[in-house]
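Entry for the shared binder. Reason: the reviewer on the internal report wants the predicted structure included alongside the sequence.
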Amino acid sequence: MRGWGQRGRRMGPFSSPFKWPVRQMWAPPEKQPDAFSHWPLGNGRWREPSRRLCGCCSRKSSSFWETSSMKAWADDVKRFQKMFRHPGHVQLKVVVGNHDIGFHYQMNRYRIKRFEKVFNPERLFSWKGINFVMVNSVALEGDGCNICSEAEAELMDISHKLNCSREEQRPGQCGHGPPLPASAPVLLQHFPLYRQSDANCSGEDSAPPEEKGIPFKERYDVLSREASQKLLWWLRPRLILSGHTHSGCEVLHGAGVPELSVPSFSWRNRNNPSFVMGSMTPTEYALAKCYLPLEDTVLMTYCAAAGLLVVLMLVHLGLVASPVLFGYKLLRKFKTV
């Protein structure tokens, strides 16, 4: 059993809308660690030690990267580790996103190394006969920059290893290290593959109706057509899991390769945060969406509790008659009559 979620993001220190401080007070993302730590695989019902995330752990403000400091990064990492705390037997795999290293024009080696030092992401790994490929989708700009060229070369090498594992080869012909399982990989990345918009997306976790028809911008909202085709050709995945858009969507690419965009796991980004639970074998998989309580429900609960507390305080101070005592007197009066 595995879980996927698009990581929660925190407010940046710049120009935050008024409603965000209100949410920070009443329904902050820090209240969400219990939802993560009580996933079925983490509470003893399931002992499958694996969880994976497709998202950004850092602040939401786009200008954050222009003034980022070591302390701000350390604070974000500390918050992330608190929000996604997990038992020691559970593996946590983190996919890099644009709020971790910036968009392409903000990305540099320092930010990449800073991320890798904390999360140590593996590009290719296998678990119980299942191959997983974690892609730095920010580096798939296709402009020939050094980081982009290195990322594509690494993907080509991974492609060779995966293709070699599917064919009968003599020992040593597939490179160094143990041979990979002969299984089509599961692709994990932050940016979705290219699609025009969310117009064909459905479900309660999809984008609002007024946003579905807005065209996506290549290399900003989704990967470019070219980068998307390269990933499909090189890796030949059987399933793609992505994030970034904050909304859920299921898409079929090419010859029927499914992609699931995982919604945001944060009340700040949507009213109904969710994550995805998955059960996988080398040849099959099953996915299910799990929802947190609606933010409206959480706020109404807080308001009701606050109202009850005010009434109890007024009763204690004698400013309002106790409802129990009032009801008792009314009942006695009724019996007397």
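Summary line for the report: The chain is about 35% helix and 15% strand.
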